[in-house]
Design a protein that fits this description.
Strand content: 25-35%
CATH architecture of the domain at 1-71 and 573-679: 3-Layer(aba) Sandwich
Number of strands: 38
CATH superfamily of the domain at 1-71 and 573-679: Alpha/Beta hydrolase fold, catalytic domain
Distance between the termini: 45 Å
Helix content: 10-25%
Strand order of the largest sheet: 31-32-34-33-35-36-37-38
Length: 702
C-alpha cells in the first residue's frame, strides 16, 4: 500500500492538463480482496478505497476531482451562467408562512445574500416585536458545512433546543437557548439525532442518542435543563438492531411517544407529558408484518395500521387502551385507495388518500356530516398536509405544487370549504406557468403493468421526437416521487429539455402493492419499469432517442447503476447522485450505517436466496465489459447514508471495464455528506455542474 500514494500523486499531477489536451483519467490501483459468502467468492479490487483515513484514498479522490474539473472545463462558462440563473430565481428575502403555537407566531426568513434562514417568532400577532431565535448565517460562519435542525421550543416558550452538524455526517450536537436572554445554557449533548421532545414542565427534554458506528438511533435519554449531561437518564434502549427510534408528542399534547420502527413492524410507547419521570407504556406490542402509527385527541387514540388492511385503515381506542384487541373501525380498508396519512382536529379528521397515483385530501367532520374532498386542477401534482399545532381550529393548511405551479401554501376552511392563498413561491425573473405543459402518461412494463410518468416541457421549445429528455426515478422504501415544482429545472426546460418522473414500483404511488412489488425478491421490477418508461418516451416522441438521459440519487442511484447495466444503449448520459451501488457488500456489513434495519427492504444476504438475487442486480458486481453511457457521479466524503467508497469503487470499475470512450466522472464534495453542499445558494453549484453536464452532452452550449 505504500506505493499507492506515489501512484495517486502522479495521477493528480498528470491531470492538470493544458486546455487543448484531453487528460488521462485516474485509474485506481488494484489491490484484490476476496470476499466470500455462501461458498461464493467475489474479488473486489478496489476494496481499499473504504479506508477513510488513508491518505492514499484522499489523494485518489482529489485526483478524481481534478480530472472531473479538467473534463468539464469546456462547460465552465455555462456552469456560471446556470448558477447565476438558478440562484437568480430565488427570492432573496423569502419567508415562510407563520404558524401559531401557544401564543407565538413562528416562521423562518432569509436576508438578502444569506445562505441560511433566521428562525423567528412574534408574540400574539404578526404585528408584535420580532424575536430572532437563531441566525443561521452567523452560526455558520467559519464552517464549510452547516446544518441547523430540530428546533423545539419548550411548552412555556422560554427555552429552545436545537441541533447543529458542521460535518455532514448527521451526527448532531444538541444545545439549549434561553429565548429571553438569547444566551445558550452551558450543556451540550453530542452524537445525537436532531430534534427531541419537551415534557410539559418546560425543564425536561427527551432526545435520541446514536450508535457511534452504525449511526442507528437506538437510545432515548432524559435530560433536565441546566444539569450535566453525564447525569442524564437512559429511559429506553432498542436492542433489536433492525429497529430505529424516533420521538414526538401527540397533537393533544397529553402524551410523549417513542416510536420503534423497522420496514415491516412498529411499536409505540407513550408517557403522560406532565409526568416525565413516569413509566412508559406500550400500546400495541410489536408483531412481524404489523405496522402502525398513532396520534391522540382528548379521550382516544387514532391509529393508522395495515392490520388486516394492505392499503391501511384507521382505527380508534380509548386512552387507557392501545392493543389491537381494543381497536374499533374508523376508516375501513379499500382495495383502490391507499391511506397515506391523517391529521386530527377538534371537529374534523383529514385523510391523505392515494388513488390512481395521485394524493387527495378528504375532510371528515366528527359530527357525522358529509365529508368533502379538496380538489386540484393539474393533471399531476404534489400535495402535503402541513403541521397545524393547534387542535381546535377549522383551518387545514397544505402545501401544493405541480410541474408548472410553484410551491403554494393554502389555508382551507373545513367548515365553509373556502380556500385562502397564503403564499406562492416567487420565481424571480421571466416565468409564466402558461409557457409550460404537463402531462400524465403511462408506459407498459414487461409484465404488462401500466407505469405512470409525469412530464413537463416548454410548449414553444417542443418538437415531437427532437427534444433531449431527462428521466428521473427513485423507487424504494415506499417513497412516492410526486410531481412537484423545482425552479432549477427551468434552466433545462427553457433550453428545450423535457423533464419526466418515472413513478416506478418500489414507491407507493399506486398503493401498498406498488411498494411490495418493487422490494426484496421483486426489486428488479423497479429497474424494468424505469427502462420501459425511457423507451415509452422515445416511442411517443417525448424524447429524442439519441438524447435520453437518466438521473437518480441514493437508492435512485442504485436504479441508475442497474439500468445502465441492463440497457446501456438506451441512455446517452446518466447523473448518479450519492449512488447506493455496492449492494451486496454493504448489506453484509453490519458495522456501517443503515445495514441492519434495511434487510426487510433489500433482503438479508446472509440468506443464500437473497444473496444470489441481490448479486444478480447489484450495479458494482454487474459492471460488464460493454459500452456504457456518459456518467457523472456525485458524492460526499462524510456521507452517512451511502458511504463515499461505493461510488468511488463503482467509477473505478466502470472505467476499467467499459469498452467505449465516453466520460465517467466522479465529483466528491470533501466538506459534505448525503445531502451535498449546505446553503440555499452554494448547494446549486452542484446543480449547475449536473445541468451543464447534461446540456453539453445534448449539444446545447449556452
Amino acid at each position: 500500500m505504500r506505493t499507492l500514494l506515489a501512484m495517486v500523486m502522479i495521477m493528480v499531477s498528470t491531470n492538470v492538463a493544458r486546455a487543448d489536451e484531453v487528460p488521462e483519467p485516474p485509474m485506481a490501483p488494484k489491490v484484490p480482496e476476496t470476499l466470500v459468502a455462501h461458498g461464493h467468492e467475489r474479488v473486489d479490487e478496489y476494496y481499499w478505497l473504504r479506508e477513510r483515513e488513508n491518505p492514499d484514498v484522499i489523494a485518489y479522490l482529489a485526483a478524481e476531482n481534478a480530472y472531473a474539473e479538467a473534463m468539464l472545463a469546456p462547460t465552465a462558462a455555462l456552469q456560471e451562467t446556470l448558477f447565476d440563473e438558478i440562484v437568480g430565481r430565488i427570492e432573496q428575502d423569502d419567508a415562510s408562512v407563520p404558524v401559531l403555537d401557544r401564543g407565538y407566531w413562528y416562521y423562518t426568513r432569509y436576508v438578502e445574500g444569506g445562505e441560511y434562514p433566521l428562525h423567528c417568532r412574534r408574540p400574539e400577532t404578526m404585528d408584535g416585536p420580532e424575536e430572532i431565535m437563531f441566525d443561521g448565517n452567523a452560526m455558520a460562519a467559519g464552517h464549510g458545512f452547516f446544518s441547523l435542525r430540530g428546533v423545539e421550543v419548550s411548552s412555556d416558550g422560554r427555552t429552545a433546543a436545537y441541533a447543529i452538524d458542521t460535518v455532514g455526517r448527521r451526527q448532531y450536537t444538541i444545545r439549549f437557548r434561553d429565548l429571553e436572554t438569547g444566551e445558550d445554557h452551558a450543556e451540550a449533548i453530542a452524537n445525537v439525532s436532531p430534534g427531541g421532545v419537551w415534557a410539559e414542565d418546560g425543564r425536561t427534554f427527551f432526545y435520541l442518542r446514536k450508535d457511534p458506528q452504525t449511526l442507528r438511533s437506538h437510545q432515548v435519554w432524559r435530560h433536565t435543563l441546566d444539569t450535566d449531561p453525564d447525569r442524564d437518564v437512559l429511559v429506553y434502549e432498542e436492542a433489536d438492531e433492525t429497529f430505529n427510534l424516533s420521538i414526538g408528542k401527540t397533537k393533544s399534547r397529553e402524551f410523549l411517544m417513542i416510536h420503534a420502527s423497522q420496514t415491516v413492524s412498529d411499536e409505540v410507547r407513550v408517557l403522560p407529558a406532565d409526568a416525565p419521570d413516569g413509566e412508559w407504556r406500550v400500546l400495541q406490542p410489536r408483531e412481524r408484518n404489523l405496522e402502525y402509527s398513532v396520534d391522540h385527541m382528548p379521550g382516544r387514540w387514532v391509529v393508522r395500521t395495515n392490520h388486516e388492511a394492505e392499503n391501511f385503515r384507521l382505527v380508534t381506542c380509548p386512552d387507557e387502551a392501545g392493543a389491537k384487541e381494543t381497536w374499533r373501525p374508523l376508516v375501513p380498508h379499500r382495495d383502490d385507495v391507499f391511506l397515506a396519512g391523517f391529521q386530527l382536529f377538534g371537529d374534523h379528521l383529514v385523510l391523505a388518500e392515494r388513488r390512481d397515483g395521485l394524493t387527495r385530501l378528504r375532510v371528515r367532520p366528527w359530527s357525522g356530516a358529509p365529508d368533502h374532498e379538496v380538489t386540484f386542477d393539474d393533471p399531476t401534482y404534489s400535495v402535503r398536509m402541513m403541521r397545524v399545532p393547534e387542535l381546535d381550529t377549522p383551518v387545514l393548511r397544505y402545501r401544493y405544487s405541480s410541474l408548472t405551479t410553484p410551491t403554494t401554501v393554502y389555508d382551507h376552511d373545513m367548515e365553509t370549504r373556502e380556500r385562502r392563498l397564503m403564499k406562492r413561491q416567487d420565481v424571480v425573473g421571466e416565468f409564466d406557468p402558461a409557457w409550460y405543459r404537463a402531462e400524465y402518461v403511462h408506459a407498459t412494463a414487461p409484465d404488462g403493468t401500466p407505469v405512470p410518468i409525469s412530464l413537463v416541457y416548454r410548449k414553444d421549445r417542443f418538437a415531437r421526437g427532437s427534444n433531449p429528455c431527462l428521466l428521473y426515478g427513485y423507487g424504494s422504501y415506499g417513497a412516492s416521487m410526486d410531481a412537484s415544482f423545482r425552479s432549477w429545472r427551468l434552466s433545462l426546460l427553457d433550453r428545450g429539455f423535457v423533464f419526466a418522473i418515472a413513478h416506478v414500483r418500489g414507491g407507493q404511488e399506486m398503493g401498498r402493492r406498488w411498494y411490495e412489488d418493487g422490494k426484496l425478491l421483486n426489486k428488479k421490477n423497479t429497474f424494468t419499469d424505469f427502462i420501459a418508461c425511457g423507451r415509452h418516451l422515445t416511442e411517443t416522441g417525448h424524447a429524442d432517442p439519441e438524447r435520453l438521459y437518466a438521473m437518480g440519487g441514493s437508492a435512485g442511484g442504485l436504479l441508475m447503476g442497474a439500468v445502465m447495466n441492463m440497457a446501456p444503449d438506451l441512455w446517452h448520459g446518466v447523473v448518479a447522485q450519492v449512488p447506493f451501488v455496492d449492494v451486496v457488500t454493504t448489506m453484509l456489513d453490519t458495522s456501517i450505517p443503515l445495514t441492519t434495519f434495511e434487510w426487510d427492504e433489500w433482503g438479508d444476504p446472509r440468506q443464500k436466496t437473497y444473496y444470489e438475487y441481490m448479486l444478480s442486480y447489484s450495479p458494482y458486481d454487474q459492471v460488464a465489459r460493454q459500452d456504457y453511457p456518459h456518467v457523472l457521479v456525485m458524492t460526499g466524503l462524510h456521507d452517512s447514508q451511502v458511504q463515499y467508497w461505493e461510488p468511488a469503487k463503482w467509477v473505478a470499475r466502470l472505467r476499467d471495464r467499459k469498452t467505449d470512450d465516453d466520460m465517467v466522472l466522479l465529483v466528491t464534495n470533501m466538506e459534505a455528506g448525503h445531502g451535498g453542499a449546505s446553503g440555499r445558494f452554494r448547494a446549486h453549484r452542484e446543480t449547475a455542474i449536473e445541468c451543464a453536464f447534461l446540456l453539453s452532452l445534448a449539444g446545447i452550449e449556452r
